[in-house]
Amino acid sequence: MNVTIDEWRAPAAELHQRREAAADVEIVVMVPERPAMVFGSAQRGAATTTPHEWPEAIDRVVRSSGGGAVFVDPARSVWIDLFVSRRVVAIPDDVVTSMLTAGRWWADAVASCGVSGAWVYDGAMMHGATPEVCFSGRGPGEVMVGENKLVGLSQRRTRHSVRIQGQLHVVDPTDITHGILGLGPAGDDERPALWPDAGVDAVALGRRVAAALGAMVSS
User: Fold this and answer.
1) Global pTM?
2) Which of 6, 25, 116, 185 has the highest local Cβ count within 10 Å?
3) How high is the pLDDT of residue 212?
4) Whole-number Cα distances in Å, 6 to 36, 86, 100, 181
5) Does CATH number 3.30.930.10 belong to domain 3-218?
6) What are the DSSP E strand ranges found in the chain?
7) What is the pLDDT of residue 22?
8) How do the domains of the chain map onto residue ranges?
């Protein structure tokens, strides 16, 4: 199985446009040129009707995969996508089982990079108090530390490949996200579990985690 690791730098909207795998498995560190609020595919209306004036420094993007809104920032978050060709058996054809498979890769990868206590949620979708926000709830395959989500996942399928998008945070984005979307204060269980190394360089961490993911996929 051919596994490649790449790094793409572009505005967040452009990073979401790529559809197909260029190899059996392509692992891509996504580095947006500017911070962006990225809405799930079912949130197109919400993306244009936020209650406050939109911050000029933050892009507004709607992705093709589902789930709640996430804040991406090249200095504060790690965004890594897995493109898996449907020609190979690296990932099951069933949506839920494929998310669980990807979640196990992620959990093993972050554990190998020094995260303690990571586990894969394998229950039904659970929406938190603010379902508009990805990290408020949890879904199959997402990686938890304690009762907080460390890695949020979403999936987009085509005839030729599966794209599983993953994100973790090194700085808590909850207050920024809630402020932009006009939401009330978040509970402690709605905040993400953060990467344990304070002050870590997010891009360098992305490369490290992507390499670990590549090792897990290849094993």
Assistant:
1) 0.94
2) 25
3) 98
4) 21, 19, 23, 32
5) yes
6) 3-10, 25-32, 36-39, 59-62, 70-72, 77-85, 118-120, 143-145, 148-157, 161-169
7) 80
8) 3-218
